[in-house]
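in:
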């Protein structure tokens, strides 16, 4: 197990106050969320759209919008980022914590060459770096991120790169600042399957070479299982199941994880005719928000295992009987055998 701990979230709670007409609503986007991440560890977060994956990870570098209320603690090397002054926190963002997103093209100025983008980024860490040294370093980083002809490619503008190439550039920019933690929020969702696999392999090799920690988010449980050491399965702003990847993917304990696996195409077989089983319930494909979920288990309206108590009581995280170390689920009725 990789050690020591780099990041530890404790009882993170994020809610949004939104005005609809005259009425003020509170959306509980993330509830009582705790996890730790070791140096060199890859943690996957999986769950359908709206389950709270992005909000959880945007809270870490303080990227949430102003209408977000955040409580709990986010310890980075033992220091609580939620208590840090804004100026110091800015120095963590980018330098220690890098982020890549689903649509990499959006984060670039279309009129800026990549050489300029790298120069500005490298000057954040080393204001005295010359243009020539910055270009040489940038070309090496591009090649490390799998883009050939780094020197020539630096002269190009964002529209001259494919989605996969822009994702590689985003990774190279994170490396330019020697980031220790890379948060990858659906980085491969807009890419085709072959490129997806290449980006996943690149991230795995960077973890091996540089010992960076990665949080990899996707709605695709097979992809998350392929890259991660451990997985958190989220629904309705809660961690529903947590444990080692191979166990989550082969013997899930939680009804929601089992449903996600049944609904998912197997990695690399996206073009097969395998039939997908949708998760049944009133809102297939879109989980209820924390706002709608009341006091009970948020999965209750869609859960085949649900009893009457499920809509009334929120299950606490617990280790199922006979489960391997590190496996925890939130469920009132699935304490026993895994699903296979
Ligand atoms: N800025 C915001 N204002 C209000 N609600 C938000 C905001 N951002 C996210 N939410 C809500 O928080 C919940 C979790 O969203 P998110 O973390 O983006 O889900 P996902 O798992 O798809 O990344 C959703 O119900 C979403 O509508
Ligand atoms: S607590 Fe009840 S509704 Fe929730 S997952 Fe378990 S059985 Fe299903
Ligand atoms: Mg998201």
């Amino acid at each position: 197990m990789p050690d020591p701990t780099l990041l530890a979230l404790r009882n993170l709670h994020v809610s949004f106050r939104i005005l609809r007409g005259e009425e003020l609503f509170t959306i509980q986007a993330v509830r009582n969320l705790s996890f730790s991440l070791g140096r060199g560890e890859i943690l996957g977060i999986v769950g359908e759209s709206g389950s709270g994956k992005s909000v959880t990870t945007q809270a870490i570098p303080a990227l949430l919008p102003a209408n977000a209320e955040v409580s709990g603690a986010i310890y980075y090397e033992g220091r609580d980022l939620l208590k840090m002054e804004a100026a110091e926190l800015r120095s963590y963002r980018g330098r220690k914590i890098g982020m890549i997103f689903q649509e990499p093209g959006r984060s670039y100025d279309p009129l800026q060459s990549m050489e300029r983008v790298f120069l500005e980024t490298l000057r954040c860490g080393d204001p005295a770096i010359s243009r020539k040294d910055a270009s040489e370093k940038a070309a090496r980083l591009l090649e490390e991120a799998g883009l050939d002809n780094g020197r020539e490619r630096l002269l190009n503008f964002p529209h001259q790169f494919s989605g996969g190439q822009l994702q590689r550039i985003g990774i190279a920019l994170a490396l330019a600042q020697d980031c220790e933690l890379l948060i990858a929020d659906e980085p491969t969702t807009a890419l085709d399957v072959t490129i997806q696999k290449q980006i996943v392999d690149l991230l795995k090799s960077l973890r091996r070479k540089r010992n960076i920690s990665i949080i990899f988010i996707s709605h695709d449980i097979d992809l998350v299982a392929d890259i991660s050491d451990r997985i958190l399965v989220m629904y309705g702003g809660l961690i529903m199941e947590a444990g080692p990847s191979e166990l989550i993917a082969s013997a899930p304990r939680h009804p929601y994880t089992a449903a996600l696996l049944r609904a998912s195409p197997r990695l690399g077989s996206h073009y097969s005719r395998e039939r997908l089983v949708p998760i049944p319930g009133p809102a297939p494909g879109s989980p209820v928000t924390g706002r709608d979920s009341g006091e009970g288990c948020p999965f209750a309206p869609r859960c085949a295992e649900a009893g009457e108590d499920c809509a009334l009581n929120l299950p606490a995280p617990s280790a199922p009987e006979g489960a391997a170390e590190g496996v925890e689920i939130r469920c009132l009725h699935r304490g026993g055998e895994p699903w296979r």
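note: The radius of gyration is 21 Å.
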